[in-house]
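Notes for week 9. Today we move from apo structures to complexes. The key idea is that a small molecule is not decoration. When we ask for a structure prediction with MTE present, the ligand SMILES becomes part of the input, just like the chain. The input block below holds both the sequence and the ligand string. Read it once before you look at the output, and try to guess where the molecule might sit.
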Amino acid sequence: MTTLPPGQVRGKKWNIYGALGIPRVDITKWRLKTSGLVKNQLELSYDELSRMEQTVVKDGFHCVEGWSIVDVVWEGVRIKTIAEKTEYHPDCKWVIFRSIEGYTAPVPIKYALKEDSIIALKLNGEPLTIEHGFPARPIIPSVYAWKSVKWLTELIFNKEYMNGYWEAQGYHPRGDVWLEERRKQHIEQY
Ligand SMILES: Nc1nc2c(c(=O)[nH]1)N[C@H]1C(S)=C(S)[C@@H](COP(=O)(O)O)O[C@H]1N2
Ligand SMILES: [Mo]
C-alpha cells in the first residue's frame, strides 16, 4: 500500500487547475528558457528536450487542498541536467518556475536538483495533454502539486527567495508534503 503524506486522502480523479486560465501553446514557437544567475542562458525547443536523456519517475501527486493521486508515472529531463548545462551560480538557493500565462512557483534548489526531479514531458506514457500542462511541467518529489507549474516556459535561478502565485497568498515557500508545509511559517531557515 502506498503511504499518503499526512492530512491527504486518495482522490478518485484529477482536478484540472488553471488559476490564470488555460493558454494556447504554439509548439513551434515554444521554448524552455533559463535565466537569473546563469552563465549560459538556454532556449530549448520541444524537440531538443525530447532528444535529451529521459528519466522515468513514479510518484504520488499531492494537492495542498487534500487530494492525492498515487503512482503517477512521469517522464522527462532531469532538472539537474539543465542546471548544469546552464551553469548556474553556486550562490543560487531557489529555482523559480514560470509558465506561459504568468503563474509562478519557487522551489528550493536542493529539491529541484534531486535525481528524481524532472521537467516532465509525459504523463503515464503519453505526452502531456494541454489540460495537464503540455508541453512541460516540473515534477519535484515531496513538494505539493501547486509547485508543478503547467505550461512551463522558464527556470529562473535565484539567490533570493521570491513569492510565486500561491506563496503570495500565504502558502509555504518550501511546501514539503511529508512535513505538511501548507501555509507560510518563517522563511529564514530555507
Ligand atoms: N500554470 C499553472 N500550473 C499549475 C496550476 C495553475 O493554476 N496554473 N495549479 C497547480 C495546482 S494547485 C495543482 S494541484 C496542479 C493540478 O494539476 P492538474 O491540473 O494537472 O491536475 O497544477 C498546478 N500547476
Ligand atoms: Mo493544488
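The longest helix spans residues 79-86.
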